[in-house]
Amino acid sequence: MAVVLDASRMARALARIAHEILERNSAPGELAELALVGIRTRGVPLARRLAKSIQEISGQDVHCGVLDITLYRDDLSGNTNTVGPQPVIRKTEINFDIDGKLILLVDDVLYTGRTIRAALDALIDFGRPRAIQLVVLIDRGHRELPIKADYVGKNIPTAPTQQVQVHLAEIDGRDEVEVQP
C-alpha cells in the first residue's frame, strides 16, 4: 500500500485548486455566482474545504451544497427481488438556487466517469446552472465516458486492478491518499 499524498501535500493541492478556481473565475460578479456541490461521501468535505479556502483568499462567501447520486447510478439493479444489502439513500442538501450559477462539482476520485455522469443528471434536476466545472482530488485515468476534470489535485496513473483510497480527517480521522494493489 503506497501513500501517494500525505496530509501536507493534500492541503497544498487543495490550496492550489482554490487559487486556480479564483483565477479562472475572476470576472466582475462571477465569484458571487459561484457555488460548490460535493458528491457524497468524500466530495462533501473536499467541497467544504475548498469553499473555506476560497472565502479566506477572496473574502467572499461561497455557497456549498451536498449531492447524493444513489438513485442516478447506472450500476443499481432494477430487480426488486434482489436479496442482500440495498443502497443507502442520503439527503441532498442544496439550499440555494442553482439557476444561472457556476457550479463546481467536487469529488475525491475520477475514474470511469460514471459517478460524474450520475451527478450531472442529479444536479440538473435542481435547476439549470450557467455552467458546471469539475473538481477532483485524484484523477486515476481509465475513462469509460468522455468526462474530463477542470481542476485536478493530482494525476495518478493506475492499473485497472488497483484501488485508490482517499482518507479524509472528517470521515476517516486522517488525510492521505493510498494506492492499493
Notes on the structure:
The structure is a single chain. With 181 residues, this protein is of the alpha/beta class. The protein starts with a strand and ends with a strand. It has 4 helices and 8 strands. A 5-stranded parallel sheet has the order 3-2-4-5-6, sandwiched between helices.
Structural topology:
Elements: E1 2-5, H1 7-24, E2 34-39, H2 43-58, E3 63-67, E4 102-110, H3 114-124, E5 131-139, E6 151-155, E7 163-167, H4 169-172, E8 176-180
Parallel strand pairs: 2-3, 2-4, 4-5, 5-6
Antiparallel strand pairs: 1-8, 7-8
Summarize the structure.
This protein has four helices and eight strands.
Kindly name the structural category: alpha/beta
Q: Spans of 5+ residues with little confidence (pLDDT < 50)?
A: none
Structure annotation, total helices? 4
Sheet of most strands: 5 strands, parallel
pLDDT averaged over residues = 93
DSSP strand tally: 8
Please bin the fraction of helical residues. Answer: 25-40%
- The neighbouring-strand order within the major sheet is 3-2-4-5-6
| First-to-last CA distance | 7 Å
Radius of gyration: 16 Å
How much of the sequence lies in strands comes to 25-35%
Give the overall shape.
Answer: globular
Give the SSE order as H and E letters. EHEHEEHEEEHE
